[in-house]
Amino acid sequence: MDLWERLSDSIDSIQGLPMPCSMGFLNADDTLCVYSMPGSRTVEEYFDGTKEREMLYEVGFNTKDQEKANKTLWLISNHLDELSTLDSEDGSFVFLGIEISETPFVSEQDVQGNSTYLLGIKITIHQFKN
Question: What contacts 71, CB < 8 A, 6 or more positions away?
């Protein structure tokens, strides 16, 4: 299923991002990433094997520039709030909707002054049986 890739592509299409959004976890200064979170679930399974799923993702930004992180995550949040479609390239899912489950917030700051800002996302899809 290519939902993660399509979400990353949608975020990367936003004008004004200070850097590309990568898939994976925060691992360095000035890192902007989208990654899956625990807690995704099957809401319903149909006779043909199609599953309605709620998929949880998080966008994280690790940087010393708190203003840049806050502005960037709000830019992403506003984009995703308006998202009406997310098309699978391999036909594995149909997008039903998206919800910002946690608006941008600062999660932590380390001793070097790097702050981690996070944005929680819930995407509802129909996932097709292989």
Answer: none
Q: Where are the beta strands (DSSP E) in 1-130?
A: 22-23, 31-36, 41-45, 51-63, 93-109, 115-127
- Split into its structural domains, the chain has a count of 1
pLDDT per residue as tens digits for the range 49-104? 999 999 999 999 999 999 999 999 999 999 999 999 999 999 999 999 999 999 99
Q: Which residue, chain included where needed, has tokens 């994976």? A: 24
For residue 105, is it within any domain? yes
Cα pseudo-dihedral 8, 9, 10, 12, rounded to 10: 90
Question: Residue 110 falls within a domain, yes or no?
Answer: yes
- Kindly tell me the sign of the dihedral angle through the C-alpha atoms of 54, 87, 127, 84: positive
- Answering whether pTM is above 0.85, one says yes
Which residue type, as a one-letter code, is found at position 96? L
75 part of a folded domain: yes
Which residues form the domain of 29? 3-122
State pLDDT tens for residues 6-56: 999 999 999 999 999 999 988 877 899 999 999 999 999 999 999 999 999
